[in-house]
Amino acid sequence: MGTLQTWRKAYGALKDTTKVGLAHVNSDYADLDVAIVKATNHVECPPKERHLRKIFVATSAVRPRADVAYCIHALSRRLAKTRNWTVALKTLIVIHRALREGDPTFREELLNFSQRARILHISNFKDDSSPIAWDCSAWVRTYALFLEERLECFRILRYDIEAERISRYAPGKDKDFSRTTELDGEELLEQLPALQQLLYRLIGCRPEGSAVGNYVIQYALALVLKESFKIYCAINGGIINLVDKFFEMPRHEAVKALDIYRRAGQQANNLSDFYEVCKGLELARNFQFPTLREPPQSFLITMEEYIREAPRVVAVPTEVLLLTYRPEEGPSEDTRISNDEPEPYVPADDVVVSTVETVPLPPLPPQANINTGDLLGLDYSDSDAFAFEQSNATLAIVPIDSGTAPTFNSRAGQPNDFDPTGWELALVSTPSTNISAATERQLAGGLNSLTLNSLYDEAAHRASQQPVYGTAAPNPFEVHDPFAMSNNFAPPTTVQMAGMTQPQHNPFGAYQPYPQQPLQQEQHLMFPSSSNPFGDVGFGAFPTQLIGLRCLSDMSKCVGCFTFTPQRRGIAFLFDLSNEVTKMVFEVSKVPTTPFDGQKPGTSGLRKKVKVFVQPHYLHNFVQSTFNALTPEKVRGATLVVSGDGRYFSKDAVQIIIKMSAANGVRRVWVGQNGLLSTPAVSAVIRERGSKATGAFILTASHNPGGPNEDFGIKYNMENGGPAPEAITDKIFENTKTIKEYLIAEGLPNVDISAIGVTNFTGPEGQFDVEVFDSASDFVKLMKSIFDFELIRKLLSSPKFTFCYDALHGVGGAYANRIFVEELGAQKSSLLNCVPKEDFGGGHPDPNLTYAKELVERMGLGKSNSGVEPPEFGAASDGDADRNMILGKRFFVTPSDSVAIIAANAVNAIPYFSSGLKGVARSMPTSAALDVVAKNLGLKFFEVPTGWKFFGNLMDAGMCSICGEESFGTGSDHIREKDGIWAVLAWLSILAYKNKENLSGDKLVSVEDIVRQHWATYGRHYYTRYDYENVDAGGAKDLMANMVKLMPTLNEINTIVKGARPDVSKVVNADEFEYKDPVDGSVSKNQGIRFFFEDGSRLVFRLSGTGSEGATIRLYIEQYEKDPSKIGRESQEALAPLVEVALKLSKMQEFTGRAAPTVIT
Known about the structure:
The chain has 1161 residues and is α+β, with helices and mostly antiparallel strands. The protein has 33 helices and 31 strands. The strands form 8 sheets. A 7-stranded mixed beta sheet has the order 7-11-10-8-9-14-13, sandwiched between helices. Helix 7 (131-157) runs antiparallel to helix 8 (185-203).
């Protein structure tokens, strides 16, 4: 590795030297070109000051505008051509420094240039030369998004927040530190969202993985961090101004203002988290950070009441928190960076933020109007603000004396106990001493002394009311424990710890999240009563024989409780859950087992009935066989993701895999909250979340039904986020046939996967962690980096556009509300079946015209006619949200047409693809509609077997951007799985792009309009698929064998064809599809039987590997039509002759006994 890295460095240096030489010879701007190359070279250190100064001089106001434009063009070219993260990052730093310190002409020309070409749009950028480069590339992309948003913010505000200088306080003038405090209502509603979006992008610049410790990234992060103070001050001033004007706004403006105010509170939380991350970095030595908190909700309620046309008058607060600033000395000399060159620019300007202190203010005079004070806790005087501007100085809290607070002349409409603290909206608060922090500290799980004492009193009372028939022998270690009575009750859910042992659930019995019997038995041995005074259900079994549960008399010093379990080797610590720490020692057991037949993974993993998976050792065998098939470095010390679509048996399976992962030496397991993660979200988490995971167990049977009597599935995805290749799945299958034992930590307690947090354990190989995280956040963040959410939001807000999304009670519902409602502003009523259920509501979660009945009816494609006008756009996803169906008003889009239309419009409609497509690919049975698009656009094209892993190889090699398959799967290289919600957003992006100039017109461009225009341009591929599900496996194999036998005899084939339908053209070729991977050279055989007709028509017969029992035969019929006069027929009508030929040729009814297919698509 060292040799390879050395070679790369040498190669980078050679490229830089060559570019410098060429610039001296060929360029009219030789000095500028040389400065740019040297400032952005491959050396992993910040740009040197002397090169930056040359660039600043070349772009100053005294130089011609052409010189400035050339500089921007040169930087754009440098950024577009490089694939090295260091060069890309240093180029962005140069741009950022020029925006901050350069002449305004640079910013103006950059804005003009960005209207022609998006210089900062590098969402496709990645440097995969090493794991470190991969992490750093991700941060480079987020940094570019911030700079792009910074430029957009300047375009809207028409001034630069960072360049704004705060004037000193002048007597006779009101204090004012931001232009946002002087804006009128309309300007506020325009500018505050832009500032909040800029802050959102800033908060997104959080380094993860290997990028955290990189010096160049920290250098750039310091630039970003410094800007956060002014951006937040501007938002604060605007919010104060906004609230002052709120109760004079018309309703439609008040609604927008409420959204802005609410988002300000949320961003305070997020910014606080961002500061916490930054505190742990090297750059923190130059900064001290304020403590931020979200504002109370009481004022939000008042605002909402006003919007509902019920204005409320509230009292003025008795205390307002303000901020003042005072400069302090910069860091000492020994903290400065040494270098052989002159000292590089330090972004923090040697500035610190001081500790917080309390400063009294003089009384304020009474005011006639409501005094909002400093709503976001960043108010300060101009003189102090000037000092802060000069030195990035100190933050301090200044509470106003409650006796001098101004009051309002009425409290009409408010109850006597109305809490006015809704106006105490300071987001910056830190106690002036440690006393308050100590006295306010709560016990584990949020308990305090008052609550705990009430529990003891209740326990004693209940014990006195119940007969005692005998007690267990006294504990010799705790004979006089005055608090032992508290052990009589199961702890609250926030502090309860799962039992040391827990029996296997019966999947066919009544479902209980956590069995209660062990807890009751164990406590009965110790105490006269085991009743729970709260009546809570769902508590886990508590550790056996709790000894020494004792509380401190000084509650301010309590950090939690501990228990000791002498029956087992191990110690469990229950700390205050705000620390999110639980530790448990566990042992590893080797359990003897014997192989099960038929554990061969299909194209999407192993799928069987639940009754098969719940057999003792069945799941364990497959999981251990998977671990054994992987190389040791991908298991021991690795990070794995374990989650799925939430179908029946998933929660039990998650716990089993966690225990087996611990036993096999895995270092960390990530679990989506409640065990929920869509298959595409798993891929995104592997690729994007923190330190990269090495793989994932995905618990899903995709579009198959769920429930105690239905299907369950499991598959393994690799470190690239895609399904395991055939080489791995073949090893897994071989291991399942010879397995003799598996490893498991049986004593490991079940982890509460409903609560976000980290549980720490200790085993024979060291620490083992289980982290439960929010299922949607990472995926939503990724989608927002791909699509233009603002453009889509404008479409969804149009009264002419209606929308409907059906999750079929699959895991897609966990993402629908977050994306479509919260982010894009759709109405909640537009979501159907978006509550994930273990049995998918008793339905079949397959997004097609047969099973998505409710959506099909609503879109006007059903048999009944309700008389209600259908929505303009409808979509559905399957159980694990990787498949999709797209519908227009009374119009169905075939999956084959869908991927072709997305590819044809991606560059214009989806920002992620604005720099062009690398190539496109489809599965073999999918229609050739994508082939025609690729040929017309000059794109690379690939035809692969069914199975997303084949697309993954092409994407990893940088050969493919968009791909799809006829089985309702569409996706791109943002992850390595098909992605149902991505496809829905892609279609919404195309509709938004087509209608961006038409939202106020008479009629919107519809889904049907887009499809028919596509047919007129590229021709139409009539296409249908017949599925024969759960047929006899022997009959299915005989049918395929007969077709293989028939292939070489074209004369016999054509005799059958003409006998069935004389009007069908003759067959000119027949073969069995075989694929050689252009990346790794692997060969996949027997992938389906194909018959090609003289007129371009095609028949395909294939056995599917996605069923859980029996066999599924899929028949694909396709006919190409270029004549515009013939592209408007119904598909089944146009394809009827070919369907008749296919059934006759295959002898379908004879081999399967089926007179009709199960599903027609």
